[in-house]
Amino acid sequence: MTYSTEDTQWIQSQLNTSVVGSQIEAYDSIDSTNDHLKGSLAGDIAEGTVILADTQTHGKGRLGRDWYSEKGVGIYLSVLLKPALPSKLIPQITLIAGLAAVEAVNGFSQARAFLKWPNDIFLNHKKVGGILSENHQEEEHSGVILGIGLNINHTGFPEPLKTIATSLAIENGAPVDRLPIIASFLNRLDRHYQAFLASGLQPFLIPWTQNSEMFDKRITVTRGPQTYTGTAQKIDSEGRLVVLLESGEEIALDSGEVTLKE
Ligand code: BT5
Predict the structure, then answer these.
(1) Which residue stretches of 24-81 are H helix?
(2) Per-residue confidence at 44, pLDDT binned at 50, 70, 90?
(3) Cα separation of 33 and 261, whole Å?
(4) What residues does ligand 1 touch, defined as CB less than 6 Å away?
(5) pTM for the full model?
(6) What's the CA-to-centroid distance between 97 and ligand 1, angstroms?
(7) Which residues contact 216 (CB under 8 A, 6 or more apart)?
């Protein structure tokens, strides 16, 4: 179901934000909400602008991966942020956005959804959503584009996602209205973003950990050609994943792909 003008007006009416959702633009179909915003950076586009799409023809994940964006059943949106922060702090926005996303999903989910570092949302051990934040720092047109994809009313997934992906409707056993989830996410994102700008990542470390089920578990992290196996210890103050390796050595990773071992 395409977003109508009434839909975007309704979302806007539910927002109690200072930045996020300053503008909401809805599209039937675009290549990627992240790429669309990137293309608008050169223009005079307000911080907090939200691009919402009913489907994406080239939805993106990290590292050039695809994001499956079936029409009418998912949430595919991007938000433009312009934080005045050193670029090494920017990746931490992925973590605070993930927290906003898992909290929003949990407002509408029967089973509890959890975060998997750094950017995944899992429900009943399957992926229900992901965050893609991209930092563009070019003189006049800089900004952080924060993208989120959530599977809401999908009734199934094509190969090879069948066994690894799920939707809120599949897990709840009933369809769910996308609009209140979008509003909840945007409200939470705004609140967390303001707190992050004021106080950094520190206040988020405990809530993030409490919304994840990966800690104290055995995990494998792959990063390029390297694989690390050990126990997930915590997120450190810089947002890195601390892993206690089988050798007894503790390492802090700033990127990678985590798999939980049974
Ligand atoms: C992510 O990447 O999880 C980030 C996804 C962000 C998507 C949003 S949609 C709005 C905005 N505009 C965009 O173009 N992107 C953002 P990553 O961690 O790299 O995970 C990608 C992997 O997840 C793929 O390689 C698949 O294995 C799997 N995958 C793809 N589509 C999926 C889906 N709909 N549900 C669950 N898993 C999926």
Answers:
(1) 33-40
(2) confident
(3) 33
(4) 32-34, 56, 59-63, 65-68, 76-78, 119-120, 127, 130-132, 147-149, 151, 161, 165
(5) 0.97
(6) 15
(7) 231, 232, 233
